[in-house]
């Protein structure tokens, strides 16, 4: 799956959690893309079965889209937490996590979760 597709799915997930709904205009504002660009990508994601669009134009993730969105978002949170723990500035930690979340293998994610388990658990309690 392309980085772009993963970013769209993650952003839809985040906006849905934040606002309770997602429209193309919400994605355009969040991602800083034009409305036509968003519309083209939504058409592609719908054709791939990753999203659904209702009669009001509300976008939701299909089960497979939700699975990918959650995986990418979890990676983002994990990497951000680790970077912050080792002293990386917050803005850089978030940007770097956003870049790496698309390229890191599941094996590495699992190893990082195991290695940093105590840190991750402590961060989630706060």
Automatic annotation (TrEMBL):
Q: Which PROSITE patterns would you find in this protein's record?
A: HTH_DTXR
The record's section on SMART domains has:
HTH_DTXR
* Record-given protein name: Iron (Metal) dependent repressor, DtxR family
Please state every residue range assigned to the domain named HTH dtxR-type.
1-62
Note the PANTHER family from the entry. IRON (METAL) DEPENDENT REPRESSOR, DTXR FAMILY, IRON-DEPENDENT TRANSCRIPTIONAL REGULATOR
Domain of life, per UniProt, equals: Bacteria
Which organism is this entry from? Sharpea azabuensis
GO terms, molecular function: DNA binding; DNA-binding transcription factor activity; protein dimerization activity; transition metal ion binding
User: Is Metal-binding found in the keyword set?
Assistant: no
- Determine if DNA-binding is one of this entry's keywords: yes
What family does the database annotate?
Belongs to the DtxR/MntR family.
Q: What is the lineage of its organism?
A: Bacteria, Bacillati, Bacillota, Erysipelotrichia, Erysipelotrichales
Q: Which InterPro entries match?
A: DtxR_MntR_Metal-Reg, Fe_dep_repressor, Fe_dep_repressor_sf, HTH_DTXR, Iron_dep_repressor, WH-like_DNA-bd_sf, WH_DNA-bd_sf
Entry keyword set: DNA-binding, Transcription, Transcription regulation
